[in-house]
Amino acid sequence: xxxxxxxxxxxxxxxxxxxxxxxxxxxxxxxxxxxxxxxxxxxxxxxxxxxxxxxxxxxxxxxxxxxxxxxxxxxxxxxxxxxxxxxxxxxxxxxxxxxxxxxxxxxxxxxxxxxxxxxxxxxxxxxxxxxxxxxxxxxxxxxxxxxxxxxxxxxxxxxxxxxxxxxxxxxxxxxxxxxxxxxxxxxxxxxxxxxxxxxxxxxxxxxxxxxxxxxxxxxxxxxxxxxxxxxxxxxxxxxxxxxxxxxxxxxxxxxxxxxxxxxxxxxxxxxxxxxxxxxxxxxxxxxxxxxxxxxxxxxxxxxxxxxxxxxxxxxxxxxxxxxxxxxxxxxxxxxxxxxxxxxxxxxxxxxxxxxxxxxxxxxxxxxxxxxxxxxxxxxxxxxxxxxxxxxxxxxxxxxxxxxxxxxxxxxxxxxxxxxxxxxxxxxxxxxxxxxxxxxxxx
Length: 442
Hints:
Elements lengths: L2 H15 L9 H11 L1 H19 L7 E15 L5 E19 L1 H68 L5 H36 L23 H11 L1 H21 L5 E13 L10 E13 L7 H68 L4 H35 L7 H6 L5
Antiparallel strand pairs: 1-2, 2-3, 3-4
Helix pairs in contact: 1-4, 2-4, 3-4, 4-5, 4-7, 4-9, 6-8, 7-8, 8-9
């Protein structure tokens, strides 16, 4: 039995133990499930909504305020003088007041901060979305890699079993020594241990994927064979770094934090400046039974419109120290921004060269796979004619299946590496999963 046919049987065996192909899910399907289930992402989404509401609160600092007040009292006036006098009466009052800030620099700085908070919240949510894309893709291909490992181990077990049976037959007819049988038996026992480990690894990887997407018995679609991996475009690492400057969520967060810190300085400095408000009020008082000085009912109304001007003179050096504090925090935010740029540039370069290296490894392993297959065929032929021994065939088989496993893993790493590169420079979008989806089995 040839190795390719053994491998095909092993693949069929693996798929038979899994869900039917019609029930398999694509990467995009599982990402959408994770988007609706993952606790970390949902937490980030709710935090985003809370940040939007908090940012809208800053608008109140520049809008007018109004208040309505009303009250009613009952008074029983009595005197013990001669002649004794008792006079009960009631008082009803209501007032409406309003105020509109005209000149309040601190309020306007707070309003501008609120708008920056919206951009900050958006960047934080984008960061969470990109993280979810990478986590889902990694978990998806971890399952596929574990499935492939189990497939190759089963195929290797079948090939070693065939070689063991051949060695035993040759020993029985006297054309081989007992050493061949023992070597094949030792290799078979080793493959059995590898199969147990591969089955457990697949079980663990599936549990991780199920927990991420909130589904039971997920079955990812495999890659179409042979997959055509997308090239790295643009091919210049500096172009990827330049893209990150304007779009990376971490840099955008740092930029907005710096802008907010600058506005905080303006708020602190406004403590030295005067304020001017437009104020107005309208009120009325009603005494339906009169008062203790008058027995006739009375109604009075009061209307006022004016300006309220306040000048801060001395606040115990609180304002000066607050300005010093905000200036230091502004410098810190500027330093954090520069640190974010450097971190993103380093991460982007690392991811870029890692992806380029991964693509080189795929090409090398594809060549190694062909070479390993040729070496196995040659060793089998040599064993049959007596110029090779059994251990040579076993080693060739082990090398071939290890190369196949490493090649499959390298292809998955390249696909995830492409997503990690886009995450590193901040350009990762949900649409990027569609390109990978196109490489899956239809």
